[in-house]
Write a structure and sequence with these properties.
Blueprint lengths: L1 E4 L20 H8 L2 H10 L16 H6 L21 E7 L4 E6 L4 E7 L4 E5 L10 E7 L2 E6 L21 E13 L2 E10 L2 E3 L2 E2 L4 H4 L35 E5 L3 E3 L4 E6 L12 E5 L4 E9 L2 E6 L5 H9 L6
Antiparallel strand pairs: 1-14, 2-3, 2-17, 3-4, 4-5, 5-6, 6-7, 7-8, 8-9, 9-12, 10-11, 12-15, 13-14, 15-16, 16-17
Pfam family, one: Tub
Organism: Effrenium voratum
Family: Belongs to the TUB family.
Length: about 325
Amino acid sequence: LCLAFLQLELWEMGYLGKVEPGPTSPVAKLFQAVEPLIFLKERVARSPSASEATPDASFVDFADLEKGGGSAVHAAKFRQPAMPSEKLHRYTIVASASSDFHLMTEGLELVMIARTQGTKQVDFFLPDEEQAIPAFSMRRQEADEWVLVQPRCDCCAHRPHHRTCDFLGRSQQVACIQHSRRKVDKCSVHFVDMFVPPLLTEDQSSLWCPAWMGKDLGCKTPLSSGSLSPKSTRSPSFHLMAPEGADAIHLQSKLPVWNSDLEGLILNFEGRSMLRSSPRNFVVQEEEGKIVMQHAQIAENTWCLDFNHPLSVVQAFAMAMASIDWE
């Protein structure tokens, strides 16, 4: 474990000064030597080798994902939870000179690209596909809330338009991320609440369609229209729907603690060292206290993204991107 100092909004309240040691991550070292855009263009342009990807490859198998490949798999696979592991699955996010952020495995395989659209939307693309419509999109609903959606709802694909979530101005919901502030000693720190659909099995996430469920993900209040129609057991997606009355999985930030000797806030990051001070350094845990995600800056324009079950690739990536304007 290492102690990473959090950059505070009120610099005069115990801020120790920004420490910027040389990065030790292999990815960070590589990007010091190789211009990121050239490297990433080469990664996107080339076709995966036979050992990296096959038509039957599945991102449900996180062991295969972390070896790279499988980029042609359907985007729905990115919704599935990470394989449970004693250690967090380790990834790296690299920001390009444009508005793109590249998610890569530690084996330097490009997994997904996030593209910011102003300050209120982030689109997520698969690296090997020329897509007019992103695989996933995250929109800022309020000043303090982001909602990650899959533009094409699996539940509404064969329904009349007036009975779809699109008719309600919504889409299939993959995550809801809510930001707030919490007081720690004399400091105000960022806090995250995240809601994701409940799991059907250890390796299968349920679908959350607002039109079917009658409410938004993470919201106790029903939609004014309620559910648009009874659930049909003949629907091809019925067996993937969240059970009646099921609650979303609730994850939230682990708060830093004030160290009076150092006169600063400290937060533990598992298996990471030499982290840079940043307001975007944060840790997420289950309600029972188990760490499921950590995000921290490791070099200029480079962050680590480590996560575990029950989060999926796109849910973890979205939570990291939702912190993009933290100061």
